[in-house]
Amino acid sequence: MPIVPKPTLLLLNSLLVCIILALSPLAHAQMDGLRDLYQRAVDDCSKGQYEQAIAVYQQIVKAVPAFAPAYNGMALANQADGGDEDKTIEYLKTAISYDPKMTQAYDNLGRIYYGRQDIDHAQEYFEKALKLDPNLATAELSLAWINLLVKSKPELAIKYFLKVLKVSQDPKIYYGLGQAYFASNQRSQALEVITKLNELGEDDLASRLEKSMRDNAQVNTDENADTTNNPPGQPAGLGPLPETPDQPTGTKVRLRGKLSDY
User: Fold this and answer.
1) Scanning 2, 158, 162, 164, which has its CA 20 to 30 A from the CA of 197?
2) pTM of the predicted model as reported, rounded to 2 decimal places
3) Which of 191, 179, 183 is nearest to 251 (CA)?
4) What angle do the packed helices 6-23 and 28-46 form, to 10 degrees?
5) Is residue 108 a contact partner of residue 93, using CB atoms and an 8 Å limit?
6) How do the residues of the chain divide into helix, strand and coil, expressed in percent and rounded to 5?
7) What span, in angstroms and rounded, lies between the C-alpha atoms of 187 and 147?
8) Mean pLDDT taken over the chain
9) Range from 42-51, 113-122, 162-171, 219-228 carrying the lowest mean pLDDT
10) pLDDT tens, 150-197?
């Protein structure tokens, strides 16, 4: 769910590569060679040749050890290739060590830790990403689900869902918002969300939310429950929906951005 249009994002990434390489103490011929290597790694990733891409990224960091985008690229390629997740985390943390302002790396770490049900670390990295980019919708959405389903803080979840809806009208976000309203016993607002889903032609989502309200007089939001590392059981009809390739708004782990974006 990118905030910046893809052409602009690609241009910014290309400029970043040029600036970092230009500032490195390398001869112009070497810098040109590294730019070519970086583009080759991006192209290899786009073609699904992940092992080859990682090998090229490793050539880059051997020449310029502090080149953070290459470590982020290795993380994305390793994850896409089904590699060791600990290695993906290592790459991302290395990227952050060289560039503490690399928002995507924090967001990606949050997604991995969420997938491991390490909710405290997931929340930590999502919040760090938001400090760097207060409008990062992917981190906001992840925090919305965490606060709704794990932390039992539906009011905070509502805040995040509403912010994400400013940049995306994905029906699944309305669905999550409706759950949050219901979980905080704001039934009239939940009914408004059901109406909105029907207007969007999402009758299935609307009926699921309506069924939850019929089957549950009140949602238990006990903040003292110990759900730090194990998400609680969900009442019928509640919970995030599986994401789809075009609408990654569930809580399934998926590293942020396309490989060609880095």
Assistant:
1) 2
2) 0.72
3) 179
4) 150
5) no
6) 65, 0, 35
7) 19
8) 78
9) 219-228
10) 999 999 999 999 999 999 999 999 999 999 999 999 999 999 999 999
Helical H segments across 81-218, by residue range:
85-98, 103-115, 119-132, 137-145, 154-165, 171-183, 187-199, 203-215
The rounded distance, in Å, linking the Cα atoms of 67 and 249 is 31
Distance CA 137, CA 217 (A): 32
Per residue in 216-233, pLDDT (tens digit) is: 755 544 443 343 344 333
Long-range contacts of 140-146 (CB under 8 A, 24+ apart): 140/164, 141/1, 141/173, 141/249, 142/107, 142/110, 142/111, 142/114, 142/251, 144/176, 144/180, 145/176, 145/240, 145/251, 146/114, 146/119, 146/122
Tokens describing residue 126: 């999502």
Joined together, the tokens standing for residue 190 give 């939940």
Closest CA to 255 of 115, 84, 64, 97: 115
Burial readout 9-25 (b: 16 or more C-beta within 10 A, e: otherwise) = bbeebeeebeebbeeee
- Measured CA to CA in angstroms, residue 110 lies from 42, 56, 153, 247 at distances of 23, 26, 19, 19
Specify the amino acid at residue 213.
M
pLDDT of residue 21 exceeding 70: no
